[in-house]
Design a protein that fits this description.
about 550 residues, alpha/beta, Rossmann fold, three-stranded antiparallel sheet, 15 strands
């Protein structure tokens, strides 16, 4: 059985991040490290991106400015597939393309991109598809070139465009107050013991806990050694600016299972208003987004639910998919044919019983009631344990008595949901008081959740009638279950475009959703062997 050494250290980091609220203050600009600090790319519409990993364009747990080729073979997970570039598929990149009438190649070119393109293999625990049907981690924080991210000069060396000052200054992992107050990484690299985890998929969650320190200099080193994200954004004097921040205030609390103090909604509103006013003073017309229901993301699996597949049902579905797809690969036949083989059907039947037994044991360990959640890494860990005939994974250990990073208790989940609503209200108030455009992402997500409760996908709004779901493998999320797919980011981009067009009289064309869906490796049709959606529908 794997050693769950991550949680105690991870909890300590989360508490430190949320409790200090950044580095505790701001400092003036200092001399930039690059030779031409004022060098920015030419653009008809200069858009400044302020926020966290969503604005940065994180997918599958990490950030990279170019593709990572696949083909390698890893023990236990099979052949690793290619990982697409992430930054160029984010909503900010799509908005820039539509506003400036340029193609994706402009964003991919280090000489013309407004993005702080990160050299592969990128920042964070990036996940890749594998032939076994389970995601595998390709990168680990703080090892090799990743360690360079913790110094300004080293971080610029890790950039594909080190001499160009980016317009997207979002810092993955930052909380709302850190946009204003954080002027340097909170910590250096975590110890190897903390970040060495198995299975590799857990690295994606770990990267979320450390990312604001790891991503700080790669995003902001061009502006100086002690500059906040807001100061950097203001210095760019953009014509437009996007603000999308606040999810990490909820996620840090959820990942710590309530062990870190949440930000007060009034403080969230005040900080958002400060960010908006600072950008407005720099000359930008601002659009600020509210938050999705964070526990509605595919990373979280409810213990009980009448509106979506539960943890046990998902566990059963993943096991069925693994068994059937494994047989299909072994015999070189389609999964639909493999599912009819008596021996495979017997294994599937046994898997259903195992899923029930393991899930109930884990629920008892965690002390969860009907409103609790397990996280994706626990599900993947449990699937692996069942397939390998290993004992039930320990979701509570002496080193991690709170289950931080493993599950969300009933009370913590209730608090997260209450804060989620309060934060959205605070963001709406900040937008109203400053005159900024409000990008209502929350309502779109709520509509998708309502359709999920009816067992239906939500329409993406394109003439071709493409749809997606919020379930893992359903097309809206990437492999980490938290950050959007290309399709999910395109939906968000169109919401920003509509807000700018409506509030400020812009005439930016909408993103062609159908084109994005057809080329999206995380769409339901392209998700590959990981996608258990067909089995989920059969179980409901």
């Amino acid at each position: 059985m794997i050693a769950r050494t991550r949680s105690a250290a991870a909890l300590a980091v989360i508490v430190a991040l949320t409790a200090c609220g950044g580095s505790g203050g701001t400092k003036p600009f200092t001399t930039p490290f690059n030779a031409s600090p004022g060098t920015t790319v030419a653009a008809a519409v200069k858009i400044v991106g302020v926020g966290d990993s969503l604005t940065a364009g994180v997918q599958s747990g990490g950030l990279t400015g170019a593709d990572i080729p696949g083909g390698a073979t890893a023990p236990g997970v099979g052949t690793i597939g290619r990982v697409q570039e992430t930054q160029e598929n984010g909503f900010y990149a799509l908005l820039w393309e539509q506003a400036n009438k340029v193609t994706k190649s402009t964003l991919e070119n280090p000489a013309t991109s407004p993005l702080p393109l990160i050299t592969p293999p990128g920042i964070g625990g990036i996940l890749a598809k594998t032939s076994s049907g389970f995601p595998a981690g390709l990168t680990t924080e703080c090892t090799g070139e990743r360690a360079a991210a913790f110094s300004p000069s080293g971080a610029l060396g890790d950039r594909m465009n080190p001499n160009t000052t980016p317009y997207d200054v979002a810092v993955s992992g930052q909380t709302t107050h850190e946009v204003i107050a954080m002027y340097q990484p909170l910590s250096s690299c975590a110890s190897a013991a903390t970040i060495a985890m198995s299975p590799p998929a857990l690295a994606a969650l770990n990267s979320l806990l450390f990312s604001e320190s790891e991503a700080f200099y790669p995003a902001l080193a061009n502006f100086g050694s002690q500059v906040t994200q807001l100061q950097a954004a203001e210095s760019l004097h953009g014509q437009l600016a996007t603000v999308n921040i606040g999810s990490n205030d909820l996620l840090h609390f959820a990942f710590a299972n309530g062990g870190s103090p949440p930000a007060n909604p009034t403080a969230i509103g005040n900080d958002i208003a400060t960010i908006i006013r600072g950008l407005q003073a720099s000359g930008a017309k601002v659009a600020v987004a509210n938050l999705v229901d964070v526990l509605g993301g595919a990373l979280f699996f409810p213990v009980q639910s009448t509106t979506e597949p539960t943890y046990e049902q998902n566990l059963d579905a993943f096991l069925q998919a693994a068994i059937i797809n494994g047989a299909a690969q072994q015999f070189g036949i389609p999964p639909s044919v493999a599912a009819t083989i008596p021996a495979v059907q017997a294994k599937v039947a046994a898997a259903e019983l195992a899923a029930h037994q393991y899930a109930q044991a884990e629920i008892q360990q965690a002390g969860l009631g009907p409103n609790g959640y397990f996280l994706l890494p626990v599900l993947l860990d449990t699937v692996a344990a069942i397939l390998q005939s290993q004992p039930v994974p320990q979701v509570v250990t002496p080193a991690n008595p709170t289950g931080a990073g493993e599950f969300v208790s009933d009370q913590t989940a209730l608090t997260v949901k209450q804060l989620n609503v309060a934060y959205d209200q605070a963001i709406a108030g900040a937008a109203a008081s400053t005159g900024a455009a409000l990008v209502d992402i929350a309502s779109t997500f709520q509509a998708a959740e309502a359709l999920r409760a009816q067992g239906k996908p939500f329409p993406l709004g394109d003439p071709q009638g493409d749809t997606a779901t919020l379930q893992y493998g359903g097309g809206f999320f990437s492999l980490d279950g938290l950050h959007p797919s290309n399709t999910g980011y395109a939906v968000i981009a169109n919401l920003f475009i509509t807000a700018f067009d409506t509030k400020y009289g812009q005439a930016f064309p909408l993103v062609d959703i159908h084109t994005v869906v057809m080329g999206d490796p995380y769409s339901a049709a392209n998700f590959g062997t990981i996608n258990p959606s067909g089995y989920l529908r059969a179980q409901r």
